Structures are given as structure tokens and as C-alpha cells.
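Service request form, structural biology core

Requester: graduate student, group of Dr. S.
Request type: structure prediction, single chain
Budget code: on file
Notes: please return the result as C-alpha cells.

Sequence provided:
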Amino acid sequence: MLKHKILAIISLGISINACNNDKKNISDNFSIDTSSIKQVYTTPETLQLQLKNEKNNTIDSVVYRINDKRIGTALQNNVVSFTMNGLKLGYQKLTATVYSEGNNGEVETHFTMASTIEPKLRKYKIVNTYPHDIKAYTQGFEFYRDTLFEGTGNGAGAGTGTRDISSLRKTNYKTGEIYKKTTLASEYFGEGITILNNKLYQLTWQNNEGYVYNADTFEKLKTFKYFKNMEGWGLTNDGKNLYMSDGTEKIYILDPETLREVDYINVYTQHAKIEALNELEWIDGKIWANVYGRDAIAIINTKGEVESIIDFSDLRKHVTQHPDIDVLNGIAYNPKTKTVFLTGKNWDKTFEIILED
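Core staff response, request fulfilled:
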């Protein structure tokens, strides 16, 4: 029962939409035959595509596309076979452009690709506990050269009635001492951070921009606009590219020089998309992600499949309870110790943990 309870926690109740309504084309004469198309697929299968033509209009040809990429063409209304290898997880829009009697129109349906993996519930052990600034509204957490870097947002002042403004910090993870700190103007809400090639990248929440700093000095090197209008949430890197979350089920892969999108993944279990992905950390080829509002972490592979879930709700019992305490948010992997450091928004402790299985 415990495993099913925790899987329910992480799945957020965001079930895959089972609705499969077709769009009507301009003339209302055609629709995609969905009798052999499932609403959800977990493994690639071969689709048999054909139109319904209930008024027996003359069809010259049909062009099929998935997510606007052409996958096949039929003369008249012949069946087109398409094998779904290479499709990303998530929503797939299937369209058919119909050419008939000198006119053309488009009809549409959709299906979903979900994960093949049943997530495993992982257990952990606390190996050390360290002090953490109770006023730090943690948004980003990362080790670099054995120093713990932290990005904070405009969080509550831990029961003081004040608001702390967003900051970047270098800290001594053992003592909580802040070695170096810089702040943002109050109108900017700091979000996720990551460090690559001695450059520190920081997101903002709703300002649609981020910053690049010298990781040693915190000198601001660059301000960049997001590649589209979106929120900034979590940030990490794999040693080559940046990975950015925006509060949805998407994780965008960015070029660290241009800050443009080069790819993306959608995060799914077998039954649900996992939204509200927040702070991110790259650990041994997997992405660890806080799920906002849940004291749990999902471990995600590079296809977007949730492989494991860790329930950290018990950690809250070990931190000082106060009016401004907020959710678990902060994952930092220390490659020197090969352990993971966790904290939360306005928590007064950082926990060093290892996985037990």
C-alpha cells in the first residue's frame, strides 16, 4: 500500500487525457478513422491510417503528419502504415490534409506516448545534517569545486514579517557560513541555478530573462531573454548542455552559449505526465527533480521516463517549524563525497543523504 500511496503523491493526479475528439475539416465531410488508434501507447506500434469518408466524396490524396512532421502520403484513401519509433513521450497531434475535388482541408486527432517503466520507490539514509539559513527561500542548489552554491527567491523572512530578496550565495556547507553573496533588485524573483565552464547561470521566475555570472567573482557577464515567453523554474547541466524546467512536464535542453532550445523531453510515468518540475540536478546520467508542492523527488532518464521516486516527507519533521516554512526544494550532488544534499524553502537544515538500494 505504501508504494501505491507514494506513486500517487508523485503522479499528482494528472491523468493522461482520455478524450480523443476529432477536429472537423472545412467541409465536414471527412475525419480520421480512430477505430484502430489507441488513446495511450507505452511502446511503439504501427498505426494504420485512413480517413472516414461517409459521404463518399472523391479523394485525390491525403498527407499525414504527427506534430507537423510529415509521416506519409496516400493516393486516394489508401491505408498508410506508420511505425512510431522515435516519438517523444507526451501528446502527439495527428493531422491529415485531404485533397478532394479541387479543395483541401485538415482533420485532426491525438494520442499520447507514455513511459514503459513502472517507477521504483527508493529508500534513503541521512548520513549528516548541517545548518542552513532559515531565511533562504531556496530555488537552486549546486556544488562546484567543493563549494555549495545557492540561489534564492523573494521568500518570506522566516517569521520576521519581512521579505528576503533574491540572491546568489557561496556557502560552507558544513557550517552554513556565507562566503560570498550578491542580490537581485526586488522586482526580480530568482529561480534555478547551475554552473558550467566556470559560468554561473541563474533564472528568474516571471521576468522572462536569466543571467550569466563569473562563478568565482559573481560578476554579471550577460543578461539573456528566454527563447519564448515562459516561466523559469529549475536549471541543471550535463557537462555540455543546460536543462531548464518551466513548471510544466517539459524539460528544455539549451545551448549554453546561445541559450536557445536545442531539444526537450516530456516527463511521464505509465499513467500520468508529471507537471510542476522545479529544482533540477544531474546525477550519474539522470535528472533528479523536485516536484513543487510535493516533498518527493523524481529520478528521470533522458527519454523523460520516471524511473524512481523518493519520498522525503519525513525530512520536514527534522527542521524547525515556523509560519514561513515551505516545501522541499534544493538538490545538490557532491561528486567528492558521492552524496546528495537536500534542503527546502526557509528550512534551517541541510541533509546529506545516500540511497540505500
